């Protein structure tokens, strides 16, 4: 293959070109490397190449941002999202060491970055679809969230430094996708929605025709657009986490921007609920199912309660802002995050059922009646989380609501 000049202008790479890029630009491999490459991206936006040197047992991930989303060419995207992702991964690696992959290189011309290969891990959603449980997950993910969220707020950072950070991570194209797909389109009969036919009548009756409910989604949308509280991941679902028994790594922060901290926490909770619902619908009755469902419930509870516990501890240790230390402020501040957590969890449960971007937890339910019941359950729980978000202040409140919605 003739040498390619990667320094002139952007083009979307194929596997052969990713090999050449790894040799000539990254210089990651030894001279005698025997390289193979596979494009492994299964997300909605990017191309992900795994380049392997089996001879020397080395590998690297090269992730390239395309000019349009893979999910639909309607979404024209700024390649700057790759810079944002690279810089944020480096920052998060310093804030939450061991909980994000290491970034080796960022290339603004080819709109790509090279990072640690996590092939010894498994995508969390894939593992959950196999009904695997991870007792350390709640501990790991709450450490990640508390460190990356609280340490990027005005509570801890100097105000000028934080404002510069807000400016650096403005992410309008990706935020617009969230504003449309999470906060707007699922809550009316939008032509772009993709709805399971049996679910549509309930969507109209339960959500679209309820003006009080629709108003609450509008409030949450404006909270998302206007509350530059923390540097949020912005897309923290079970497809954005690599996991193995003793390790959790958060990936894909390209939706990151300064927004409400509860956005990340709510997404984690919602996707644990999806895992629970999927297991309930697809597993055979017996001890294995009981154990898995019990783990998903305990993980939901622990994510909320561990987040609170670690947040309180880190706030006490790291708060620098004088007024943040006033009596009662910490409780007020944390409760606002918990309120947003419940609201976002509710939005996510609804939008993954009604909107354009679904989750395999639900779409892989082959029995139509069970899928219909699963989708209805998610919508009912989602609505209640949004409407009752002011009182969803601990893990038990989530488990109580889940049990209530089963009846």
Count of alpha/pi helices:
14
CATH class of the largest domain: Alpha Beta
Strand order of the largest sheet: 1-2-3-5-4
Q: Largest sheet, if any?
A: 5 strands, antiparallel
Shape: globular
Which class do the helix and strand fractions yield? alpha+beta
Number of E strands: 10
Helix-residue proportion = 40-55%
CATH fold group of the largest domain: Aminoglycoside 3'-phosphotransferase, Chain: A, domain 2
Task: Report the average pLDDT across residues.
Answer: 94
Condensed summary:
With 407 residues, the protein is α+β, with helices and mostly antiparallel strands.
SSE map:
Elements: H1 15-26, E1 35-39, E2 46-53, E3 58-65, H2 80-95, E4 103-107, E5 112-115, E6 122-123, H3 124-129, H4 137-150, H5 159-168, H6 172-181, H7 200-208, H8 211-226, E7 230-232, E8 241-244, E9 247-250, E10 257-259, H9 262-282, H10 287-318, H11 329-354, H12 360-363, H13 368-387, H14 395-406
Antiparallel strand pairs: 1-2, 2-3, 3-5, 4-5, 6-8, 7-10, 8-9
Helix pairs in contact: 4-10, 7-13, 9-10, 9-11, 9-13, 10-14, 11-13, 13-14
Protein name: S-methyl-5-thioribose kinase
EC number: 2.7.1.100
Keywords: ATP-binding, Kinase, Nucleotide-binding, Transferase
């Amino acid at each position: 293959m003739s040498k390619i000049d990667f320094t002139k202008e952007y083009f979307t790479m194929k596997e052969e070109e990713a090999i050449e890029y790894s040799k000539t630009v990254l210089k990651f491999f030894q001279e005698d490397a025997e390289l193979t490459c596979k494009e492994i991206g299964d997300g909605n936006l990017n191309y992900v190449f795994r380049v392997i040197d089996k001879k020397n047992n080395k590998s690297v991930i090269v992730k390239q941002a395309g000019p349009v989303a893979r999910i639909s060419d309607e979404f024209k995207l700024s390649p700057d999202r790759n810079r944002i992702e690279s810089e944020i991964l480096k920052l998060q690696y310093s804030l939450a060491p061991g909980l994000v992959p290491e970034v080796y290189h960022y290339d603004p011309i080819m709109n790509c970055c090279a990072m640690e290969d996590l092939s010894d891990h498994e995508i969390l959603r894939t593992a959950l679809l196999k009904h695997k449980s991870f007792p350390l997950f709640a501990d790991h993910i709450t450490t990640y969230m508390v460190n990356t969220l609280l340490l990027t707020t005005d509570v801890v950072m100097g105000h000028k430094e934080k404002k510069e950070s807000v400016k650096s991570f403005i992410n309008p194209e990706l935020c617009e996708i969230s504003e449309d797909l999470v906060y707007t389109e699922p809550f009316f009969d939008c032509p772009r929605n993709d709805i399971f036919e049996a679910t549509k009548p309930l969507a109209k009756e339960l959500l679209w025709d309820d003006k009080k409910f629709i108003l609450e989604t509008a409030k949450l949308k404006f909270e998302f657009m206007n509350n530059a509280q923390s540097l949020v991941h912005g897309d923290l679902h079970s497809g954005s986490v690599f996991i193995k028994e003793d390790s959790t790594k958060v990936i894909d922060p390209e939706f990151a921007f300064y927004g409400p901290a509860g956005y990340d926490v709510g997404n984690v909770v919602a996707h644990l609920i999806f895992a629970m619902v999927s297991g309930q619908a697809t597993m055979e009755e017996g001890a294995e199912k009981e154990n898995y469902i019990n783990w998903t419930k305990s993980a939901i509870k622990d994510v909320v309660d561990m987040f609170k516990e670690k947040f309180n501890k880190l706030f006490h240790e790291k708060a620098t802002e004088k007024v943040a230390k006033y009596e009662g402020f910490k409780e007020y501040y944390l409760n606002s995050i918990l309120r947003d957590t419940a609201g976002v969890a509710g939005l996510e449960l609804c939008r993954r059922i009604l909107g354009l971007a679904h989750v395999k937890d639900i779409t892989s339910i082959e029995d139509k009646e069970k899928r219909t019941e699963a989708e209805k359950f998610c919508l009912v729980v989602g609505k209640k989380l949004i409407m009752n978000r002011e009182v969803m202040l601990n893990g038990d409140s989530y488990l109580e609501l889940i049990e209530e919605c089963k009846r």
